[in-house]
Q: What sequence folds into this?
């Protein structure tokens, strides 16, 4: 090899290494077969730059000076330097002849890597220098080993050809080597590398072999959201945009229309397309593969011959192939992720029967797959209005309680027509109207109808993509897919809720809301069977309102109904969640108390009796007794009674014993064989 400033291009080997070192965030050193430095080190940064300025430290031998023991097999060797950073070494061959060794590194082995000060001191540093070196690690970059190896393969391939080119004498031979060097950079690159890295290798090679001032590639954003500048090389000030920035509409039209290399030299046309003032010419090369446009290659301020154009055009085609492979693999990954997303949706919906939970799943999944920051689910209530059932985002408090009529506003029209509304920009897409939307970041939203088979319809609203870009047709299609699965779950939950209501009505007393006699017998039979299996106690309390007919005749049936509701409320408040309070019929009530012995049930009954006694009922003062009271009878299991009917009958006998003894008191039934007796427990309560 010759010195650093020889060879094709403007900067020779040194410029070549510098470009790749900057794009890869590592430093590079090229050493000849005789162990003399040909070019480098290029790209020293952070801790490596600090260390290599202190030549007394041992890592200097790795990154600055030739060493003995070079490997001769054509592989890339990676290891760690004394500082713990990743370094590499690999021979460079051209047509079987050793050209030298490519060395370098300085990549952080992990994103959170921090050099150990004690390890640095073991290399011979004092503590102050070790602390300073560790602090400089922030200037280095993390590069995973798989990515680093793959990038090095591309650099090494083109470097091998580049080094061989330096030895050729004729222009024709050099031209052949230029072509070989360009396409050699494709070899060894892995498709799992970021597309920006793959494209960067291509552009760096193009800059070196043709001595180009500046070059960049623009590619379409996903979901037809225009072009953006993916990668560049050379003088950034000559290019129409920086990496990651959106390309303008005029520039995007070139991508959509040109099929052959296109040359612009008119100053006005260049400025209209977004090129800066210092650009005096630009070549645009379509990047295609399989008939599809993958992007556009831009070369500025370059004098290219016809032969150059043919080579670069072919090179752009190869870049298109690489982009296509990358895109297809990413699309396959996206399809796999979408399948997994839908499977997780189905799994969540399958295990959910509550409508409120389904609304939450629908909204969360829809926002997740479309990138929406805000959303709401609205369904029609019994009065026909749309009501917000679930919200996501900062507007939750504002939207809570919001209700609209069918046909009113966008959501109302979507509900009325059953057709979705997808708006990219409210200022242009809503019949010329320009609504003010101060709470929203963007003018794009989706309003999608949710129309289950027989349950009330609703709408799903999504707004403000986190990326700031408008919603797309793909977003709308994804919402449609989610809704197809969710509507089935909503319909199922709707019918289950209706079934619960019907079942509840069938087992609930309409007036008091307590369980009815049918429900009582079902629960009592089940609880008795459980108590028999496990040897657990159970008590039943029968209760009857004293002189209720007198109260009813005196104050009317409406007042009587209200009194029964109040008594039912007292019963509910007086028992546990596991107990059952029932209206047995008329003014008679029953309590089922699992795991309660008879002597423990008596205080419960006494507490209820006392609460009824102190409760004031309108009109009771006109009664002969002066107030409404309650008599209660207690029966329990285990005992002589073994069936639901027997234990209720036993409690009923105790109840009527309380009535005979003067009312407004509690009695417990003591069964001796089939002779039903009763006795008073505790002190007599005054009537």
A:
């Amino acid at each position: 090899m010759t010195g650093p400033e020889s060879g094709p291009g403007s900067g020779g080997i040194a410029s070549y290494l510098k470009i790749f070192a900057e794009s890869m965030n590592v430093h590079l050193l090229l050493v000849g077969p005789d162990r003399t430095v040909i070019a480098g080190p290029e790209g020293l940064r952070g801790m490596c730059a600090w260390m290599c300025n202190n030549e007394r430290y041992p890592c200097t031998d790795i990154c600055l000076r030739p060493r003995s023991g070079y490997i001769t097999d054509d592989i890339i060797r990676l290891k760690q330097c004394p500082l713990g950073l990743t370094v590499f070494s690999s021979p460079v061959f051209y047509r079987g002849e050793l050209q030298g060794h490519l060395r370098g590194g300085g990549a952080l082995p992990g994103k959170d890597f921090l050099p150990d000060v004690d390890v640095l001191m073991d290399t011979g540093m004092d503590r102050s220098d070790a602390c300073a070196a560790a602090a400089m690690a922030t200037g280095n970059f993390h590069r995973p080993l798989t990515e680093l190896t793959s990038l090095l393969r591309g650099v090494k391939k083109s470097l091998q050809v580049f080094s061989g080119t330096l030895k050729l004498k004729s222009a024709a031979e050099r031209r052949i080597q230029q072509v070989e060097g360009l396409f050699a950079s494709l070899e060894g690159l892995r498709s799992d590398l970021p597309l920006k890295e793959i494209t960067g290798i291509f552009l760096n090679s193009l800059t070196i072999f043709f001595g180009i001032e500046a070059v960049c590639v623009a590619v379409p954003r996903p979901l037809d959201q225009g072009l953006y500048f993916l990668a560049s090389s050379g003088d950034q000030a000559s290019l129409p945009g920086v990496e990651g920035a959106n390309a303008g509409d005029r520039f995007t039209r070139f991508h959509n229309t040109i099929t052959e290399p296109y040359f612009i030299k008119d100053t006005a046309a260049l400025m209209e397309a977004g090129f800066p003032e210092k650009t005096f010419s630009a070549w645009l090369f379509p990047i295609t593969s399989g008939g599809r446009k993958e992007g556009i290659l831009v070369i500025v301020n370059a004098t290219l011959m016809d032969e150059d154009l043919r080579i670069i055009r072919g090179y752009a085609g190869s870049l298109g192939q690489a982009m296509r492979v990358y895109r297809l693999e990413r699309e396959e990954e996206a399809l796999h992720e979408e399948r997994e997303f839908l499977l997780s949706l189905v799994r969540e919906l399958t295990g959910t029967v509550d409508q409120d939970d389904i609304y939450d799943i629908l909204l969360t999944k829809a926002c997740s797959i479309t990138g929406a920051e805000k959303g709401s689910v609205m369904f029609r209530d019994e009065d026909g209005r749309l009501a917000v059932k679930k919200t996501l985002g900062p507007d939750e408090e504002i939207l809570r309680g919001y209700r609209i009529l069918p046909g009113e506003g966008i959501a109302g029209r979507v509900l009325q027509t059953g057709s979705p509304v997808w708006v990219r920009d409210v200022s242009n897409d809503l019949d010329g109207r320009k609504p003010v939307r101060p709470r929203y970041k963007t003018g794009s939203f989706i309003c999608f109808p949710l129309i289950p088979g027989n349950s009330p319809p609703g709408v799903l609203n999504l707004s403000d993509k986190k990326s700031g870009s408008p919603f797309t047709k793909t977003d709308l299609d994804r919402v449609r897919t989610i809704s197809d699965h969710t509507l089935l779950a909503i319909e199922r939950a709707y019918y289950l809720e209706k079934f619960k209501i019907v079942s509840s009505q069938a087992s609930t007393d309409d007036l008091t809301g307590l369980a009815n006699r049918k429900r009582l017998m079902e629960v009592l039979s089940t609880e008795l069977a459980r108590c028999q299996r496990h040897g657990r106690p159970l008590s039943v309390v029968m209760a009857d309102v004293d002189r209720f007919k007198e109260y009813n005749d005196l104050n009317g049936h409406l007042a009587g109904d209200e009194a029964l509701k109040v008594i039912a409320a007292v019963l509910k408040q007086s028992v546990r969640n596991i107990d059952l309070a029932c209206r047995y019929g008329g003014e008679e009530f029953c309590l089922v108390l699992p795991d309660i012995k008879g002597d423990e049930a008596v205080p419960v009954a006494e507490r209820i009796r006392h609460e009824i006694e102190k409760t004031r009922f309108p009109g009771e003062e006109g009664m002969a007794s002066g107030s409404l009271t309650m008599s209660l009878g207690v029966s329990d299991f285990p005992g002589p009674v073994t069936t639901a009917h027997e234990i209720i009958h036993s409690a009923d006998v105790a109840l009527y014993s309380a009535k005979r003894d003067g009312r407004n008191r509690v009695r417990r039934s003591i069964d001796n064989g089939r002779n039903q007796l009763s006795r008073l427990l505790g002190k007599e309560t005054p009537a």
